[in-house]
Amino acid sequence: MRTKIMLDSTADIPRDWIEKLDITTIPLHLTWPNGTQEDDDSRDLSVIKDFWRRLEISEKLPTTSQPSPGEIRSLYEKAFEDGYEEILVLCISTGISGTYNTAKMVAEEFDKPIYVVDTKKASAINSLVAKRARELISEGKNAEESGKILEREIAEGRYHAVFYVSKFDFLVKGGRVSKFQGFVGNLLSINVGLYIKHESGALIPFKKVRGEKKAQTMLLNKILEEVPKGSTVDVILVHADNENGINALKKLLEDTYVIRKMTTSIMGKIISTHVGPGTAGFGLYWVK
């Protein structure tokens, strides 16, 4: 059975994985204050670098929006027209976006199998979810069976995503982070740690420190609360214009875990808008 995997564009997937894993990406959208619109549809480094530059000099951030039902419907239809017999859709956490709800609603219009998963995650960790999905499908499981295994693994805490941001105002302006006492106000010189909870899929600030080196140690300590030292893991490092940051995290992780596979990626337009240039972090899959 031919299974198409769909992944929304917030997954920050490495460019070469799109073809390798037979992925169709579902673009989210941005609207700048002057009304200019653009799609989160590129994984080209030069395009993303230009976007980071525009973010840095813009007084006001663009707003972001999920794909419309019509856009998702067209992608489903094309997959079936191309000969795929079923679709597995992996969506950004419902704690952050409504994309899952729209994808699920449209799926119910079809009489062919479409299984939609709320990953309860965002950014590059969802690329590891997609990689795991393709492994399961290659073992002979169908879309629904694969989706249910992924949901179980997500609930068990097998997938983790942590980041530090140096421009917390991007998160507050974008409205995609829980605002609680101690994390609002003037944080211009502070690095804030963010963790996506696997129970709720909410993006939570968990600690603030001064200096990037402390921020990198902060992320390591946070992941050690969830995944014991010496565990076998897959890692995807991800950044928004902070390659030095992920290089330092790479070394810390290599000294802490048995890494089966490690890769790097860049944050796309949607995620970069909400966290800001200077962000670095990683997604980790606990192989067990």
Quick overview:
The protein is of the alpha/beta class and 288 residues long.
Provide a descriptive summary of the structure in words.
With 288 residues, the protein is of the alpha/beta class. The chain has 2 domains: 3-29 and 65-155, Rossmann fold; 159-286, Hypothetical Protein Tm841, Chain: A,domain 3, CATH 3.30.1180. The chain is built from 10 helices and 13 strands. It has a 6-stranded mixed β-sheet with strand order 10-9-8-13-11-12, sandwiched between helices. Strands 2-1-6-7 form a 4-stranded parallel β-sheet, with helices on both faces. It has a 3-stranded antiparallel β-sheet with strand order 4-3-5, with helices on one face. The chain is globular and about 55 Å long. The two termini are 29 Å apart. This is DegV family protein.
Radius of gyration, in angstroms, nearest whole number: 18 Å
| Fraction of residues in H or I helices | 25-40%
* Gap between N and C termini: 29 Å
| Largest sheet entry | 6 strands, mixed
- SSE order, as H and E? EHEEEHEHEHEHHEHEEHEHEHE
Number of domains: 2
Strands of the widest sheet, in order across it, are 10-9-8-13-11-12
Q: What is the C-level CATH assignment of the largest domain?
A: Alpha Beta
**How many β-strand stretches?**
13
Q: What is the level-2 CATH architecture name of the largest domain?
A: 2-Layer Sandwich
Instruction: Sum up the overall morphology in one term.
Output: globular
Number of helices: 10
Pfam families: DegV
GO molecular function: lipid binding
Organism: Kosmotoga arenicorallina
Protein name: DegV family protein
